[in-house]
Amino acid sequence: MGPFEVTPELEAFRQEVRRTAERAFKDKAAYWDEREEFPAENKDKLAELGYFGLLIPEQYGGLGAPLIQGAICVEELARVDLNTALVCQLYLHGPAGHIAAIGTEQQKRRFLPKLARGEIFFGISISEPHAGSAVTDLKTIATLEGDQVVLNGSKCFTTAGHVISHVLVFVRFGRSQGAKGIGAVIVERGTPGFESGKPAPKMGTRGIGEAELFFDNCRVPKENIFVLGDPENSEGFKKLMSCFGTERVGSAAMSVGIAQGALDFAKAHSEQRQQFGRPIMEFQGIQWKIADMATQLQAARLMAYRAACNVNASGCPDPFETAMAKLFANEMVQRVTNEAMQICGHYGYTRLAPLERMSRDARNFAYAAGTLEILRNTIAAMAYGRGFDRRKG
């Protein structure tokens, strides 16, 4: 385990992203939420700024930056607008990282330069109606037929599933059960037999919908096989999950970003709001709230940065550290946004302030990229040094 630090270069990058977020994205953050509209213009702006290629290796058109720089990027975007941060999260900590780490050379050359430029938009689809936390219960089938793969099945809660151009789909190859036979296939929008549904209305992150995906004899070329699942073993599934930690680092970082935005807003409010003839920051009850919020926030930030810096040769972070960072940060952001709203009183509860939106958005992290309960199971298994079979009664 090596050390980590926020270098002057990384701090300068943070300030660059913060200025951009304040100038370009803050004023319309409530708009995307209220209209439940995908922030397409913000996606174009992020591509123009070159943020999408931040972590992609230089030989494939990216900047080859370290994972912590991606974490800082989504943290600062989430500070003002989580919907925009989630767009960047999909590019930085989603399928591009998987492709760079374990994709074929042909797949890297085919997809990574276009991802770096924002010309394509990749999603990842894992969950099914009966296979959420129990992901190894997935039933979407991939059948090899000559030089093609035929997909049949359906997926749910696919982030931005209604607007993505490509999707990395977790599937089952052959007659297998559990983790055996699980692999993944890349499917492009417009492929016959592939359809997406409309996003369901939801509590938060309302500008980034989650959609159902349907595959009905959907045929893709064999070169679109990302990981070939073997019905005799679970190696394909293990390979896929080895890259999943980058998404959890991003989740922790975005939780930190929202919490920072909420703390900043509540602190400024406490300096201006007067009761009993003086600013409410003069009252010890408010001071203690701010102290607790700042302490929890800093602890979560350090955990997220530590996980982002402790990566292997493929750029994938340590699963133990990522699980702990995500768990702590996901719970922290719910506490901090709630306390920020309390400090601001009824004003914080109105839509005149951003806190009610931040509070709703923060709740999303308790489910996405692993529920808080699954994270605790994962952490416990690694702490014990052994797995636990959840299916035993």
Layout of secondary structure:
Blueprint: H1 8-25, H2 29-35, H3 40-49, H4 67-78, H5 82-93, H6 95-102, H7 105-117, E1 122-125, E2 141-145, E3 148-159, E4 166-173, E5 182-188, E6 194-196, E7 210-221, E8 225-227, H8 235-241, H9 245-272, E9 274-275, E10 278-279, H10 284-309, H11 319-343, H12 345-349, H13 355-363, H14 372-384
Parallel strand pairs: 1-4, 2-4
Antiparallel strand pairs: 2-3, 3-7, 4-5, 5-8, 6-7, 9-10
How would you explain this protein's 3D organization?
The protein is α+β, with helices and mostly antiparallel strands and 393 residues long. It folds into three domains: 8-121, Acyl-CoA dehydrogenase/oxidase, N-terminal domain (Butyryl-Coa Dehydrogenase, subunit A, domain 1, Orthogonal Bundle), CATH 1.10.540; 123-234, Butyryl-CoA Dehydrogenase, subunit A, domain 2, CATH 2.40.110.10; 241-384, Up-down Bundle (Butyryl-CoA Dehydrogenase, subunit A, domain 3), CATH 1.20.140. 49% of the residues lie in helices and 15% in strands. Strands 1, 2, 3, 4, 5, 6, 7 and 8 form an eight-stranded mixed β-sheet that branches. The protein has a two-stranded antiparallel ribbon with strand order 9-10. Strand 4 (166-173) and strand 5 form a beta hairpin. Helix 4 packs antiparallel against helix 5 (82-93). The chain is globular and about 80 Å long. The two termini are 38 Å apart. The model has no long low-confidence stretch (mean pLDDT 95).
